[in-house]
Design goal:
Elements (H helix, E strand, L loop, with lengths): L20 H6 L9 E4 L6 H6 L3 E6 L2 H12 L1 H8 L6 H8 L12 H14 L28 H13 L1 E6 L2 H5 L6 E5 L22 H16 L3 E7 L2 H6 L4 E9 L9 E9 L2
Parallel strand pairs: 1-2, 1-4, 2-3, 4-5
Antiparallel strand pairs: 5-7, 6-7
Helix pairs in contact: 3-6, 4-6
Length: 278
């Protein structure tokens, strides 16, 4: 398949891998195009959209995110029509943001939910998708002059890619997706990172966040993949817990620039790890 540079993330997602793509690509197995691609924590999909595999399974626990992928794939025209209705105004932004506080939100059509997520992502402060302890979107208005609320070219390219290839879009527990992996699969995992310190924790992707126990459970799943002879590459923080958990695997230190933190003083280069079993 010819690489299409227009196919790219349509959402800015915390921990997105677009800027780390060069080093990630260096660490991929040889002949990556021959593998069935599996990504259990899809997020913004930077790696997927760069590789553009013909066969892939993608998953995320975040229902709002996966609904948006499904709508981009299956209902693009109506999504774009809905996006054009949205206004870059503070009062309108908070009105739309607060919809998920109301019982009626559950009955909102999927296409309206998807348009809401894209709109909030493009107009909220720093493009930071974050929810509170009750799972409600809580990032403030960004006050941007001309945000790209409707990026029709990218949305169309992504929709075409998802439709013209064998891409299975799932929503749920990553462990269920990993059960689909075979020796013909390559698994890239970008889970919620373990915090480098108590003050640096960001777990606002989904209600409940991720704990040390979740990190340990993921490592056990990686061991299962390894025993089955399935290649995996994992991104995580360089926290001592992660280094210790994956001590028997290859660890590559990388420098990542984090620009999505709501506090300017917390942005800048930090150490991250790429972990692989091949």
């Amino acid at each position: 398949m010819k690489h299409n540079i227009i196919i790219s993330p349509f959402l800015k997602w915390a921990g997105g891998k677009r800027q780390l793509l060069p080093v990630i690509l260096e660490q991929l197995p040889a002949q990556i195009e021959t593998y069935e691609y599996i990504e259990p924590f899809i997020g913004g999909g930077a790696v997927l959209f760069h590789l553009q595999p013909a066969t892939a399974t993608i998953n995320d626990y975040n229902e709002e995110l996966i609904n948006t992928y499904q709508i981009v794939k299956n209902n693009l025209a109506e999504l774009i029509k809905e996006l054009r209705k949205h206004k870059n105004e503070a009062a309108y932004f908070y009105q739309l943001r607060n919809l998920d506080r109301k019982p009626a939100y559950e009955k909102l059509p999927p296409v309206k939910k998807a348009a809401r997520i894209i709109y909030l992502n493009k107009t909220c402060y720093n493009g930071l998708y974050r929810v509170n302890s009750e799972g409600k979107f809580n990032t403030p208005f960004g006050k941007y002059k001309n945000p790209a609320i409707v990026n029709e070219e990218v949305l169309t390219a992504v929709s075409n890619y998802l439709n013209e290839n064998n891409i299975d879009i799932c929503c749920g527990d990553y462990k269920q997706v990993l059960k689909k992996a075979t020796r013909k699969s390559f698994v890239y995992m970008d889970p919620p990172y373990h915090p480098l310190s108590k003050s640096s924790s960001f777990t606002g992707y989904v209600k409940g966040g991720w704990t040390e126990a979740d990190q340990t459970a993921l490592k056990e799943q990686c061991d299962v993949l390894h025993r089955k002879g399935i290649k995996f590459l994992l991104s995580n923080s360089s926290a001592p817990l992660i280094k210790e958990l994956y001590s028997e695997y290859t660890q590559i230190n990388v420098k990542a620039s984090r620009t999505i933190n709501s506090k300017g003083t917390m942005r800048g280069q930090i150490d991250e790890l790429l972990i692989k079993n091949y």
